[in-house]
Design a protein that fits this description.
The complex is a heterodimer of chains A (147) and B (163).
Chain A: H1 3-6, E1 7-16, H2 21-36, H3 40-53, E2 57-59, E3 62-63, E4 66-69, E5 76-86, E6 96-105, H4 109-124, H5 126-133, H6 138-146
Parallel strand pairs in A: 1-5, 3-6, 4-6
Antiparallel strand pairs in A: 2-3, 5-6
Helix pairs in contact in A: 2-3, 5-6
Chain B: E1 7-12, H1 16-32, E2 35-43, H2 44-52, H3 58-85, E3 90-97, H4 99-109, E4 114-118, H5 128-131, H6 133-140, E5 144-148, H7 152-162
Parallel strand pairs in B: 1-2, 1-4, 2-3, 4-5
Helix pairs in contact in B: 2-3, 4-6
C-alpha cells in the first residue's frame, strides 16, 4: 500500500480559507462526499464523534481526523492545508495547518491502520511537512505526497 | 532452504493484491504439489505506534485489534475454501506483532523456501518504501520471493480452472 494508491488529486485541498476546526472538517468531508458520492452527514457525524473523544491534532501543526463507517465501501483520504492556522485542540496546544482525513469501511480495519501508519510516518519528517505545506498549487500538493 | 522450493508461504493482509498472491500460490501448489502455508499478521506493532503518536486512543486501538482479528479469521477461512476448490491442503496461521518479525520467524521455524507476496503499484512514493510492510518484508527475508502483480488474468485463471 502507498499513498499514490489512496489519494486522488481532486481530494487534495490547498490553502483552505477556514477559521475553525468544524469548518475544516466540514470542508474536507464535503469534498470527499461530493467527489465520491458519499453520505456527508453520516460521515461528518462519525468524524466529530471521534474528535469529541480526543482531538486527532497530533501536535506540530498536523491533524489526522479519521473514522470508520458502514456507509463506506473503501478507504478515502482527503488532504488539506489551510491559509490560516486552525485551533484543533491539538495535544501540544499548537494550531494546525496540515490535515489528513481518513475514512474507512468497517470491515477493512487492517488497511485503515496501515494507511494511518503511512501518514503518521510521512509527517514525522519536518522536511516532508514543509514540502506539503509550502505547495502552491493542487498539483504540487498532490505531487509532494506521492513523490 | 530447498532449491527451487518445497514449502511455500503466502502473506495475506486482506488487500486485493494479497488475494491475487494467494490464488497464484494455490495454483503453484496445485501443480507442483508443494506444501502451502498462509499467514495473516495482526499488526499490533502499527497499532502501538499509532497510540504512541497520538493518532489512536488506547480504546480505539483495542477495538481495531479486535476487528482486525476478526478480519484475519475471515480471510484465512476464505483462503482455506479457495484452496479446497483446487484440492490443495493449506495450513493457515494467525499471528500478532510486527509483520516483518512474524513472517521472518515463521519462515525460520517452518523451513519455508519461497515467500509469495502481493505487489504494489509500480508508480509509488519513494517515502512510502520506508513504511510499507511488503517492501520491508522483501528487503528483510533471506529466502526466494515471488511478487505477484494484481492482475485480472490470475482471477480469470483461478475461476476458469474451478469450472
Amino acid at each position: 500500500m502507498n499513498l499514490f494508491e489512496l489519494v486522488h488529486k481532486e481530494d487534495c485541498l490547498l490553502n483552505l480559507e477556514v477559521n475553525s476546526k468544524l469548518e475544516v472538517l466540514d470542508k474536507m468531508v464535503t469534498t470527499l462526499a461530493n467527489n465520491h458520492n458519499l453520505d456527508k452527514n453520516k460521515i461528518l457525524e462519525k468524524v466529530l464523534e471521534r474528535e469529541n473523544q480526543l482531538s486527532t491534532g497530533l501536535g506540530e501543526g498536523v491533524a489526522i481526523p479519521h473514522c470508520k463507517s458502514n456507509c463506506l465501501d473503501k478507504l478515502y483520504i482527503c488532504v488539506a492545508t489551510t491559509k490560516n492556522e486552525i485551533d484543533f485542540d491539538a495535544l501540544d496546544e499548537k494550531p494546525c495547518k496540515l490535515f489528513f482525513l481518513v475514512l474507512a469501511p468497517e470491515n477493512k480495519s487492517s488497511l485503515h491502520v496501515e494507511a494511518l501508519a503511512l501518514i503518521a510516518n510521512l509527517v514525522k519528517s519536518k522536511i516532508n511537512k514543509r514540502l506539503i505545506i509550502s505547495s502552491s498549487t493542487q498539483e504540487e500538493l498532490y505531487e509532494s505526497l506521492i513523490d | 532452504m530447498k532449491v527451487p522450493y518445497e514449502n511455500i508461504l503466502v502473506y495475506i493482509d486482506g488487500s486485493e493484491a494479497s488475494m491475487s498472491a494467494l490464488m497464484y500460490a494455490i495454483l503453484i501448489a496445485e501443480r507442483t504439489k508443494c506444501k502451502l502455508d498462509v499467514i495473516y499478521v495482526i499488526n499490533t506493532k502499527a497499532l502501538q505506534d499509532l497510540v504512541k503518536n497520538h493518532v489512536f486512543l488506547q480504546s480505539e486501538s483495542l477495538s481495531y485489534e479486535k476487528d482486525i482479528e476478526e478480519d484475519a479469521s475471515r480471510y484465512l477461512f476464505h483462503a482455506k475454501k479457495m484452496a479446497k476448490t483446487k484440492n490443495v491442503e493449506i495450513t493457515t496461521y494467525k499471528e500478532k506483532g510486527s509483520v516483518v518479525t512474524c513472517v521472518q520467524n515463521y519462515i525460520k521455524n517452518n523451513s519455508i523456501d519461497l515467500l509469495v507476496i502481493g505487489s504494489q503499484t509500480s508508480l509509488r512514493a519513494r517515502r512510502d518504501e520506508v513504511a510499507s510492510e511488503t517492501d520491508r518484508l522483501l528487503r528483510s527475508i533471506s529466502i526466494a520471493s515471488l511478487v505477484v502483480k494484481d492482475n485480472q488474468d490470475i482471477w480469470d485463471e483461478f475461476e476458469k480452472e474451478k469450472e
